[in-house]
Specification:
The chain is an alpha/beta fold. About 35% of the residues lie in helices and about 15% in strands. It has helices at about 15-25, 50-65, 85, 105-115, 130-135, 150-160, 165-170; strands spanning about 5-10, 30-35, 70-75, 90-95, 125, 145.
Length: about 190
């Protein structure tokens, strides 16, 4: 008999949902995944989308209160879980970026509240020691670090590029050091 786990729909191309989709695929033989809609990815207008998402998702989450299984969650909607539900939750924290808030100023308060309830989760998975330290400072104890994944085939392909040609293409001086510092999707 397969274990039951609930998650948001693994729809999207950004880090957290890509990891979630990979987790679904890797565990499909052992886990019966049941998903709930991620409303915030369907709104055409970004402003206040997380608040609309929470309001729309609340009845679905309430209905899951007594459902059997584990929650593998990566969404601010953890706030509408009961403490008993959080105790069965593995929370995936990909990142926290206040500059991407679309429901300011309320969203900042929601994230602060989220960080206060994360210690109630069975475990929290994050992508780096930096985030593990960030979470420990907020009282989270059961933390696992699973580093950001890299597609090594793509890395090997990029290593084959001629650096001088790349610098010339982007108008960079030969001594310029390039640093990736963010989310290229945006």
């Amino acid at each position: 008999m397969r274990r039951i786990a609930y998650s948001m729909e693994p729809v999207g191309r950004t880090g957290g949902r890509v990891y979630l989709r990979m987790l679904h695929e890797a565990t499909a033989d052992d886990v019966e995944w049941r998903t709930v809609p991620d409303h915030k990815r369907t709104y055409r207008v970004r402003r206040w989308r997380k608040l609309r998402h929470l309001a729309q998702l609340a009845p679905t989450v309430r209905a899951l209160h007594s459902a059997p299984g584990t929650f593998v969650w990566d969404d601010i909607s953890l706030l509408i879980f009961t403490p008993e539900m959080r105790a069965r939750t593995v929370f995936l924290l990909h990142h926290y970026e206040p500059l991407q808030h679309d429901s300011a100023p309320v969203e900042a308060m929601l994230w602060e509240r989220l960080f206060r309830v994360l210690p109630q989760c069975a475990a929290v998975v994050c992508i780096s020691p930096y985030w593990a330290d960030f979470l420990r400072a907020r009282g989270v104890r059961n933390i696992r670090v699973i580093y950001n994944a890299f597609d090594m085939a793509e890395v090997e392909r990029a290593r084959g590029f001629d650096r001088a040609e790349c610098r010339a293409e982007f108008g960079l001086a030969p001594g310029t050091i390039g640093v990736y510092a963010g989310k290229a999707v945006h």
